[in-house]
């Protein structure tokens, strides 16, 4: 492979192998590469919602304190390369091609064994570890779990710290029907003796995670017990809050991401910094951490991309995410009407997803997008038992119609899937300044 297009096309060609839980293929490839993952100081971030935002808060605080930070995240919003980034800069085309050429012979060889071909995500994970270990060597690498935890391809690492942001009803066809079953899969990232920080809110899920931490003799910190955040003030563009833990207090934290859940994600990141400091892995000043928090943003998470009319992109795609979106709209735009444009993947139960909006002044336009798992606009329309609804097959027309027919009382919200939000965001970037 000589070009980045060839490399990305090859990686995407592995998509038909789908999701194949298990670590044996990862272990096989990493052993052949002399275990790049063992040469890195990693922090593992799992959970249903909030992983990406927590990674971003943590990254910005680490950078503000002078550290080089690698991030491995998914899915991407703007470009494929951003999934593997150093200090916010995506892997270069040259480095991606180089790493892909080193991994491809192993993929071809592995495909001929009883283990079978690795998946697209396994190959991306391997490329990320190889890039960080051999080309950039950052001080820390923040690794976001892809799906679940216990059998996720990232779970081959032995991190300095594990974070579980939340437990929610998502990917239930894979992870289990109950919160306890899902929590069991998420808790699979907990390692022997490795500290754990939890932002999980449900008692039944907390108990599963705490039990796993105790079994692994891992130091355990729970939001709401060992640390907490308290809102001081907020407006349309910022939130001011206090962080309190047994060890320390940050009196005035400012973030520019909206919603109660973003303060909770920020508090997880601060607790992570505090724990890493206690363990002797880093040093920081409160002032630098506060600067990092203020600088934090995360594309596609209640992101205001246009004013007049106001267009908000939010990748909420499960019950808990939609509840957070509805609560954030109520908190920041209580007097507005919400014109919500929704596309989703086939396994989603639209009526459950939209339940938080039933008592709000909201209209719904269902659409679809070019993605192999995307549901049709007709299926979503038929599922949704809401009063004001429409189905539009071309999502661009749906957005344009909302723009052309809005009033000063309207907020346009695009949601339902991060993959969908990514497509809309790219299109809007070509027409307005995002």
TrEMBL record:
Q: Which UniProt keywords apply?
A: ATP-binding, Folate biosynthesis, Ligase, Magnesium, Metal-binding, Nucleotide-binding
A GO CC annotation given for this chain: cytoplasm
* SUPFAM superfamilies found in the cross-reference section: MurD-like peptide ligases, catalytic domain, MurD-like peptide ligases, peptide-binding domain
Q: Which residues does the UniProt record annotate as the domain Mur ligase C-terminal? A: 300-417
**Catalytic activity, reaction form:** (6S)-5,6,7,8-tetrahydrofolyl-(gamma-L-Glu)(n) + L-glutamate + ATP = (6S)-5,6,7,8-tetrahydrofolyl-(gamma-L-Glu)(n+1) + ADP + phosphate + H(+); 7,8-dihydropteroate + L-glutamate + ATP = 7,8-dihydrofolate + ADP + phosphate + H(+)
- Cofactor annotation: Mg(2+)
Q: Which superkingdom heads the taxonomic lineage of this protein's source?
A: Bacteria
Q: Which Pfam families match?
A: Mur_ligase_C, Mur_ligase_M
Hey, which pathway is this one from? Cofactor biosynthesis; tetrahydrofolylpolyglutamate biosynthesis; Cofactor biosynthesis; tetrahydrofolate biosynthesis; 7,8-dihydrofolate from 2-amino-4-hydroxy-6-hydroxymethyl-7,8-dihydropteridine diphosphate and 4-aminobenzoate: step 2/2
An example GO biological process term is: folic acid biosynthetic process
EC number(s) recorded for this UniProt protein: 6.3.2.12, 6.3.2.17
Which leading EC class covers this enzyme? ligase
Q: Which Gene3D superfamilies match?
A: Mur ligase, C-terminal domain (3.90.190.20), Mur-like, catalytic domain (3.40.1190.10)
Any one Gene Ontology molecular-function term assigned to this protein's record: metal ion binding
Is Nucleotide-binding among the key words of this record?
yes
Q: Which residues form the Mur ligase central domain?
A: 45-272
Q: Which family does it belong to?
A: Belongs to the folylpolyglutamate synthase family.
Description of how the protein assembles with itself and partners: Monomer.
Under which name does UniProt file this protein? Dihydrofolate synthase/folylpolyglutamate synthase
Record organism: Alkalihalophilus sp. As8PL
Q: Kindly list the organism's lineage.
A: Bacteria, Bacillati, Bacillota, Bacilli, Bacillales
């Amino acid at each position: 492979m000589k070009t980045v297009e060839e490399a990305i096309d090859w990686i995407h060609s592995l998509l038909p192998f789908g999701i194949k839980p298990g670590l044996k293929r990862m272990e096989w490839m990493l052993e052949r590469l002399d275990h790049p993952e063992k040469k890195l100081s990693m922090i593992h971030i799992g959970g249903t919602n909030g992983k990406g935002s927590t990674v971003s808060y943590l990254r910005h605080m680490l950078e503000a304190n002078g550290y080089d930070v690698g991030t491995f995240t998914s899915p991407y919003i703007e470009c494929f390369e951003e999934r593997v980034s150093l200090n916010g800069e995506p892997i270069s085309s040259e480095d991606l091609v180089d790493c892909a050429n080193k991994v491809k012979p192993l993929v071809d060889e592995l495909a001929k064994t009883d283990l079978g071909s690795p998946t697209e995500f396994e190959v991306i994970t391997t490329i990320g570890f190889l890039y960080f270990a051999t080309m950039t060597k950052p001080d820390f690498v923040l690794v976001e779990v892809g799906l679940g935890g216990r059998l996720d391809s990232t779970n081959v690492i032995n991190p300095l710290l594990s974070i579980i942001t939340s437990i929610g009803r998502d990917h239930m066809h894979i992870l289990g029907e109950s919160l306890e079953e899902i929590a069991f899969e998420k808790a699979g990232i907990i390692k022997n003796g490795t500290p754990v920080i939890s932002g999980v809110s449900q008692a039944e899920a907390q108990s599963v995670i705490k039990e796993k931490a105790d079994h692994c003799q891992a130091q355990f910190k729970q939001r709401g017990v060992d640390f907490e955040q308290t809102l001081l003030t907020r407006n349309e563009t910022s939130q001011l809050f206090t962080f309190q833990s047994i060890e320390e207090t940050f009196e005035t934290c400012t973030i520019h991401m909206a919603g109660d859940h973003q303060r909770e994600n920020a508090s997880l990141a601060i607790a992570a910094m505090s724990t890493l400091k206690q363990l002797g892995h880093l040093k920081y000043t409160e002032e630098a951490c506060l600067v990092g928090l203020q600088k934090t943003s995360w594309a596609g998470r209640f992101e205001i991309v246009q004013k007049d009319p106001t267009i908000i992109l939010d990748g909420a795609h499960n019950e808990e995410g939609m509840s957070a979106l509805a609560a954030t709209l109520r908190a920041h735009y209580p007097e507005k009407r919400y014109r919500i444009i929704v596309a989703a993947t086939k396994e989603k139960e639209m009526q459950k997803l939209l339940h938080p909006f039933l008592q709000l002044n909201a209209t719904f336009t269902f659409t679809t997008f070019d993605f192999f798992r995307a549901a049709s606009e007709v299926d979503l329309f038929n599922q949704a038992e809401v009063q004001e609804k429409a189905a539009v097959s071309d999502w661009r027309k749906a957005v344009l119609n909302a723009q052309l027919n809005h009033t000063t009382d309207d907020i346009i919200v695009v949601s339902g899937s991060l993959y969908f939000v990514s497509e809309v965001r790219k299109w809007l970037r070509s027409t307005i300044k995002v």
